[in-house]
Amino acid sequence: MPNQLRTFEMEEAAQPLLPSRRIHSEIEESIPVSISPSSDAATPPRLKSGLHRASTAPAMSVIPGDLFPQDPEPTLDTSTPILKHASVLLLLYLSLGMLVYFFNPRGFSVVETHPAVDALYFCMVTLCTIGYGDITPATPVTKAIACVLVLVGFGIVNVLLTDAVNHLLHLQESAIIDSVRGSSTRHTSYIVDAEKGRMRIRTKVGLAVGAVLLSIGVGTVVLRLLENLDWMNAVYLSVMSVTTVGYGDRSFNTTRGRIFASVWLLVSTLAVGKAFLYLVEARIDKRHRRIAKWILKRDLTVTDLLAADLNHKGFISKSEFVIHKLKEMGRIDEKEILSICNQFNRIDQHNTGKITLPDLLGVSR
After folding, report:
1. Domain coordinates of the chain in residue numbers?
2. Quick one: average pLDDT of 119-123?
3. What's the whole-model pTM score?
4. Which residue among 18, 172, 257, 325 is least packed, with the fewest CB closer than 10 Å?
């Protein structure tokens, strides 16, 4: 029997330690074994494992659960603050502009339709930075107030409204990705990049072009019906409006037309502005992909080796190679690398060059 056990131990030591056997050995080491005299004859001695836990490593089973800080769960409804702030600021802006118009009606040169509609229309045209010229400030006081409205509208309200539009588009994109996730059809893969979890750039460009055409089309039809313009002038005024050019030779001159313009101008200018940003994003993304492809195909030179050797050891590790390539692609810079290294040094309190569980527990305290 002793010879058989010795032979078994030699065979066990010669075999690689499988994952299941490794886990079993670690569990056995953490459990104290008490052998009574009566059980020695019936039970063979426990085989020793080649794995040993370091004396400084704490056992995970004895660490209290309250020492592991739980990350706060992200709030699911993040649209409320953005949309609420944008709506409140927009209403405040329109209210102040309309009050200024009401209390000083003679301070504006205007083709009158209805006082309330004209006031709202003037605020929207100012907010969208179009400037048709059909309603203009005529006194020093109203000109000063118009300057304030332009600066506040262009610098604050438009920025917040753009953030609200971006958030709504992000929610819509997430809903589209969730609806097509798991589908492997060619149609859905052409629209959504499942690996990156976002819509493809070409899809965004298609939606951008569709938003521009839809805004121009709606404006053209409504201008044809409400302002009694011919089709050429209707298209002309619609394009000048959504692109915020506004030469001033054409404008909205009826009450119904100005009511429509008060809503349509805000929606269409934001949509078209976002559409052109998608076109710029597609151009930048294409340029980045071309640069990344060229960098990955380029052979490594001695200059690259010296530049990537951060520790000056005469060779580069895999992490140093990755960092060097990311720097070449413009994904990270020296400032970001130093910030990451400083965070690592704050966690590595004993300057061991690695982060251990005691380091994390010390930081959490």
Report:
1. 79-295, 297-364
2. 92
3. 0.60
4. 18
